[in-house]
């Protein structure tokens, strides 16, 4: 029909519209329907009407995607919506029967309960059958309720018994608490007494110091007065001598005055002189007048007389001149006499003054000696009284300790007796409760249990030992023969448990590796839960409901790592299929082995910083080829990762929880640590301190009072599940961020307001002087390549760099600068991997060294492992008290020992290690012996009677440290020189001295002592080198001998081994260590240098052992390569040049290796 098609379409559309209208009415009330409908009630009726099938019912009731009842009811409505009008009719009939109120709400009609659909489908017999089934179900529910009531009653009785046990435990704890308070009161009283004694001692010391000061002031005043007295005496003596001299001079003058002529005599002499002059004139006039009148003969006579007179006058004049000269000489002699007399008097005065001064100083010296003797007597008396007081005090302390020990022993005996009494009471109460419970259970079990209860549930309630399915284990029940309290109070013997077999489990790898530490902790936690929740001697189980409720959270946490040997159940398989999808877990985000923050890295960076290159993950096949399965490989990786640090690199030595700063400057605040890193940003580092750079507005940190410019000093709180106290004032930027990011719960931040330091830090960063507040020096223990290791700087092992920023550009990279070896100045800068990343690189290099071994060594290791597996094959025979120790762990530990032996072997190190794979392994032992530590660990594993953990033993003997913190030292004096190999030292020293180096080098003079003196010297001094000359005489060298040589500005050439380097550095003596490289190519050149002939193989082996010991040195050493010399003369020249070069270099010391 041409018109039938459109009419049919219109009819179908009309039906669809009617159906939509009907379901729209249901959808309007969907919220109320999904909230109050229980799908488990409606699905039987819906299946009876054939609206839904079994698959739909299973989806609605058991789908894991529908955890709540509302979700299941909504899904049921969606399924009915797809069934059209029939689904709507049947749904309304089910509502009419089970939920009449909802039926009235949807339709607006009163329920009639006609069940037209089921009558049409099944007839009245089908309806009757359906109602009978419903009645049976209700009866079964009533029986289940009765069973649950019985279980609750049994559980109530059990809880009552536990309450009694807890009350007894409370009494015991109260006893301990009372003892604790008593001991605390005693400690407080002793502390008060100690404080009082300290105060008295302080007062006495202050009084003694005051009196001593007063005495010293009095002595000084007495000395000053004595000095003034002596000066006055000296001045008095001087004045007396001057007075005496003046007196003598005044007497002489007086005598001269008294002996001078009188005035009358002077006048008389003058008159006589005038009379004589007058007579002379008269005679001259007479003579002149007579000459004119005398005759010639008389004139001749007069001339003769005149001539005679003139001659007489001349003679007289000569005599007068002689007299005058004599008088002048007499006058000069008198002047000299007077001068000498004055000098004599002055000398006598000085002599007398010096004599008086000598007597004064002699008296003063006698006074000082008397004072010194008095001081010595007082000192001896003080020493004697001090010794007596100390002796008396020590005796009092000994007696006090003895009495205190007796009191403690008595209190412990009393407490033990009380605890034993409480335990006995607990045992009695426990036995009584068991007896009462068993009697009640035997009397009421048959009456309380329903008739149609399944046999499995009855057997479980009666305590049959049947293993649980789906990976569940049996727990304790209230009807067990021995309760957990018995195991607690009577300490039963725990039989050895076999370790679970995890072979074949393939762990899903995500972008970031899941730390094996969490897996091991999970397994250990599972064992602890087994031992705490189940008594070893008990074999009864709890009812199904309680056990299922206990196992459900554990199953939700277990993921794919099952801890039982039973096959998994259906829902476990569904859950595993669901969890197999790649996802980022919280374990990955907080992976401590890598040390990265997943929140700060995108996917690309996260892949870049994942655990090593693909060689690590692809190396399991080689391990398995040598007899290791997947579990053994995981154990090896776990043991390797245990050597890494769980927190970032900390350059500060002071790691105690103290606050720098005193007074009111330091403040503290308490806030929630969850998400604190997102509320603030940090600035600074270990050199400048950690500052708050910014605080998120409106956050908890801002409300707690934290502001920009506050310097963080200390963080106290829960960090990674442990209560810790971390000082932040000396942390690096990376460690401070790591600490704040991993804190949780309430934490306490100690800080101080330091805007000046913050502004100074910002200014220096803006000026480009620094990049952050970090500053420390490290020594690399591995080679780093810029092309292979995702960094911008290529460095070699033993290079020293200056770290400038531990989170450069907010990435997990370190900005550092290469250090000039002579001036300590920063050279070119670049980035290197962070500490955790460098640890991973170090592990990669170790695994590469193992995989690079030849086939013979692999076969040998395989044979060794097979023989060890044969010795450890019966796992049930492993008699140890630790359930974690198993043959698999032993095999993994043994393989790890083989790995350490492989790395420690020098031939592997020098034959198969290229320039990019050199590593320096720092051992925990002073000698740095890797092979010995691995052999000791293997021996510990094979000795079954020793209950030691091989992983801990290996961890104590070896740590993998990529970067070592070093400190710079400068030595102005010439440093001593050590040679290695040591067997060449004596010959090289002699040749250096004989080759004209006596002005620069010399040997150290040793001390010759007896055996007793040598033993005493060993206890009191550091002996660098010792040698026994004869049975009773020793030759030894101490640091004082070396310093005496350095004082002469010469290098001290030592013949000792490199084992004395640590002792020298501890004594502030920094030696130059020279390594002469020995290889197969140049071994023939050493024939002239060896003191005694040895085989080339033995000499080469000894040299390799000595070279291996150099890795453990706390300082750097210089190497003389084989290509640098071809003769002994060239070797001596190269050694001199090396010594001069090393003398100019800065000394870098790893103080952690001391």
UniProtKB/TrEMBL annotation:
Sorted alphabetically, the Gene Ontology cellular component annotations on this record are: CBM complex; cytoplasm; immunological synapse; membrane raft
Q: MF terms per GO, please?
A: CARD domain binding
Keyword vocabulary terms for this entry: Coiled coil, Cytoplasm, Disulfide bond, Immunity, Isopeptide bond, Membrane, Phosphoprotein
Occurrences of domain CARD (ranges): 18-110
The keyword Coiled coil appears for this protein = yes
GO terms under biological process: B cell differentiation; B cell proliferation; canonical NF-kappaB signal transduction; CD4-positive, alpha-beta T cell proliferation; homeostasis of number of cells; positive regulation of B cell proliferation; positive regulation of canonical NF-kappaB signal transduction; positive regulation of CD4-positive, alpha-beta T cell proliferation
InterPro entries recorded: CARD (IPR001315), CARD_CARD11 (IPR042141), DEATH-like_dom_sf (IPR011029), P-loop_NTPase (IPR027417), PDZ_sf (IPR036034)
Comp. bias intervals (Acidic residues): 473-484
Q: Where is the composition biased (Basic and acidic residues)?
A: 524-533
Subcellular location, record wording: Cytoplasm; Membrane raft
Q: Spell out the residue ranges making up region: Disordered.
A: 441-573, 605-626
Main subcellular location? cytoplasm
Give residue spans, biased composition: Polar residues: 457-472
Q: Where is the composition biased (Low complexity)?
A: 534-549, 615-625
> Gene3D superfamilies this protein is in?
2.30.42.10, Death Domain, Fas (1.10.533.10), P-loop containing nucleotide triphosphate hydrolases (3.40.50.300), SH3 Domains (2.30.30.40)
| Oligomer status and interactors | Homodimer; disulfide-linked. Homomultimer; polymerizes following activation, forming a nucleating helical template that seeds BCL10-filament formation via a CARD-CARD interaction. Interacts (via CARD domain) with BCL10 (via CARD domain); interaction takes place following CARD11 activation and polymerization, leading to the formation of a filamentous CBM complex assembly. Component of a CBM complex (CARD11-BCL10-MALT1) complex involved in NF-kappa-B activation. Found in a membrane raft complex, at least composed of BCL10, CARD11, DPP4 and IKBKB.
Q: Which PANTHER family does the UniProt record give?
A: CASPASE RECRUITMENT DOMAIN FAMILY, CASPASE RECRUITMENT DOMAIN-CONTAINING PROTEIN 11
Which protein, by its recorded name, is this?
Answer: Caspase recruitment domain-containing protein 11
């Amino acid at each position: 029909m041409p018109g039938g098609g459109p009419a049919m379409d219109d009819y179908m559309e009309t039906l669809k519209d009617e159906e939509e209208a009907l379901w729209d009415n249901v959808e309007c009330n969907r919220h109320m329907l999904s909230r109050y409908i229980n799908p488990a009630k409606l699905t039987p009726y819906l299946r009876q009407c054939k609206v839904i099938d079994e698959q739909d019912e299973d989806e609605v009731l058991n789908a894991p995607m529908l955890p709540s009842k509302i979700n299941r009811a909504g899904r049921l409505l969606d399924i009915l919506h797809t069934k059209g009008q029939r689904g709507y009719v049947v749904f309304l009939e089910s509502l009419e029967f089970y939920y009449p109120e909802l039926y009235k709400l949807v339709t607006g009609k009163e329920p009639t309960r006609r069940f037209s659909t089921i009558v049409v489908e099944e007839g009245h017999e089908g309806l009757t059958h359906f109602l009978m089934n419903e009645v049976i179900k209700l009866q079964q529910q009533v029986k289940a309720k009765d069973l649950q009531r019985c279980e609750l009653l049994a559980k109530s009785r059990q809880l009552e018994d536990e309450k009694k046990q807890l009350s007894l435990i409370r009494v015991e704890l109260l006893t301990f608490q009372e003892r604790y308070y008593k001991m605390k009161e005693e400690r407080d009283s002793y502390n008060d007494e100690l404080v009082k004694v300290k105060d008295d001692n302080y007062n006495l010391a202050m009084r003694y110091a005051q009196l001593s000061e007063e005495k010293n002031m009095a002595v000084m005043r007495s000395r000053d007065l004595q000095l003034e007295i002596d000066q006055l005496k000296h001045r008095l003596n001087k004045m007396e001598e001057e007075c005496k001299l003046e007196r003598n001079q005044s007497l002489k003058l007086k005598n001269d005055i008294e002996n001078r002529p009188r005035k009358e005599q002077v006048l008389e002499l003058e008159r006589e002189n005038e009379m004589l002059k007058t007579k002379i004139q008269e005679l001259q006039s007479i003579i002149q007048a007579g000459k004119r009148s005398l005759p010639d003969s008389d004139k001749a006579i007069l001339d003769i007389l005149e001539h005679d007179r003139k001659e007489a006058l001349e003679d007289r004049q000569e005599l007068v001149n002689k007299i005058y000269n004599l008088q002048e000489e007499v006058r000069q002699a008198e002047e000299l006499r007077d001068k000498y007399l004055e000098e004599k008097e002055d000398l006598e005065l000085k002599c007398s003054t010096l004599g008086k001064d000598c007597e004064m100083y002699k008296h003063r010296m006698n006074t000082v000696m008397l004072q010194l003797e008095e001081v010595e007597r007082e000192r001896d008396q003080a020493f004697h009284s001090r010794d007596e007081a100390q002796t008396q005090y020590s005796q009092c302390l000994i007696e006090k300790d003895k009495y205190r020990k007796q009191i403690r022993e008595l209190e412990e005996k009393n407490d033990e007796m009380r605890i034993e009494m409480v335990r006995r009471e607990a045992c009695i109460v426990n036995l009584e409760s068991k007896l009462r419970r068993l009697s009640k259970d035997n009397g009421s079990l048959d009456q309380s249990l329903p008739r149609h209860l399944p046999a499995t549930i009855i057997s479980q309630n009666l305590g049959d030992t049947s293993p649980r399915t789906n990976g569940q284990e049996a727990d304790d029940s209230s009807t067990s023969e021995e309760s957990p309290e018995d195991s607690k109070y009577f300490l039963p013997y725990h039989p050895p448990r076999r370790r679970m077999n995890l072979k074949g489990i393939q762990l899903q790898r995500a972008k970031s590796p899941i730390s094996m530490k969490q897996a091991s902790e999970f397994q250990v936690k599972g064992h602890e839960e087994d031992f705490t929740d189940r008594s070893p001697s008990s074999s009864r189980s709890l009812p199904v409901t309680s056990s299922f409720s206990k196992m459900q959270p554990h199953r939700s946490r277990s993921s794919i790592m099952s801890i039982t040997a039973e096959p998994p159940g259906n829902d476990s398989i569904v859950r595993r299929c669901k969890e197999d999808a790649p996802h980022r877990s919280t374990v990955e985000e907080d992976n401590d082995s890598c040390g990265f923050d997943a929140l700060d890295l995108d996917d690309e960076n996260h892949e870049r910083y994942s655990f090593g290159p693909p060689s690590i993950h692809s190396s399991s096949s080689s391990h398995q080829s040598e007899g290791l399965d997947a579990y053994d490989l995981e154990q090896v990786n776990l043991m390797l990762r245990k050597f890494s640090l769980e927190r970032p690199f900390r350059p500060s030595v002071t790691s105690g929880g103290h606050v720098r700063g005193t007074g009111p400057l330091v403040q503290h605040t308490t806030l929630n640590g969850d998400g604190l890193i997102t509320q603030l940003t940090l600035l600074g580092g270990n050199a400048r301190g950690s500052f708050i750079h910014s605080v998120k507005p409106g956050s908890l940190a801002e409300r707690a009072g934290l502001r920009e410019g506050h310097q963080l000093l200390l963080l106290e709180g829960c960090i990674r599940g442990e209560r810790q106290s971390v000082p932040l004032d000396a942390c690096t930027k990376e460690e401070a961020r790591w600490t704040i990011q991993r804190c949780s719960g309430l934490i306490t931040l100690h800080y101080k307001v330091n805007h000046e330091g913050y502004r100074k830090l910002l200014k220096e960063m803006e000026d480009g002087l620094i990049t952050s507040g970090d500053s420390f020096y490290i020594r690399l223990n591995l080679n780093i390549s810029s092309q292979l290791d995702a960094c911008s700087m290529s460095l070699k092992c033993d290079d020293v760099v200056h770290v400038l920023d531990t989170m450069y550009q907010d990435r997990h990279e370190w900005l550092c600068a290469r250090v000039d070896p002579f001036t300590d100045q920063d050279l070119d800068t670049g980035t290197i991997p962070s500490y955790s990343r460098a640890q991973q690189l170090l592990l990669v290099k170790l695994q590469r060294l193992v995989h690079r071994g030849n086939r013979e060594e692999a076969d040998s290791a395989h044979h060794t492992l097979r023989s060890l597996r044969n010795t450890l094959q019966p796992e049930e025979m492993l008699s140890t008290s630790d359930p974690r120790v198993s043959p698999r762990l032993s095999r993994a530990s043994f393989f790890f020992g083989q790995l350490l032996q492989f790395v420690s072997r020098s031939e592997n190190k020098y034959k198969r290690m290229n320039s990019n794979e050199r590593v320096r392994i720092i051992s925990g032992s002073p000698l740095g012996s890797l092979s010995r530590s691995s052999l000791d660990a293997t021996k510990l594993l094979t000795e079954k009677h020793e209950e030691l953990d091989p992983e801990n033993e290996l961890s104590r003997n070896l740590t993998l440290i990529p970067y070592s913190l070093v400190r710079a030292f400068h030595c102005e004096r010439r440093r001593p020189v050590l040679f290695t190999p040591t067997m060449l030292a004596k010959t090289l020293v002699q040749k250096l001295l004989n080759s004209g180096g006596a002005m620069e080098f010399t040997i150290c003079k040793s001390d010759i002592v007896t055996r007793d003196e040598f033993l005493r010297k060993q206890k009191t001094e550091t002996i660098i080198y010792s040698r026994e000359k004869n049975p009773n005489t020793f030759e030894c060298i101490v640091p004082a001998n070396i310093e005496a040589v350095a004082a002469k500005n010469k290098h001290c050439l030592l013949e000792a081994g490199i084992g004395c380097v640590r002792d020298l550095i501890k004594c502030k003596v920094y030696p130059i260590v020279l390594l002469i490289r020995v290889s197969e190519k140049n071994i023939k050149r050493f024939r002239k240098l060896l003191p005694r002939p040895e085989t080339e193989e033995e000499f080469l082996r000894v040299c390799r052992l000595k070279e291996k010991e150099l890795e453990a040195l706390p300082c750097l050493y210089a190497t003389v390569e084989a290509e640098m010399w071809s003769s002994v003369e060239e070797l001596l020249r190269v050694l001199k040049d090396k010594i001069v070069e090393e003398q100019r270099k800065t000394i870098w010391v790893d103080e952690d290796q001391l």
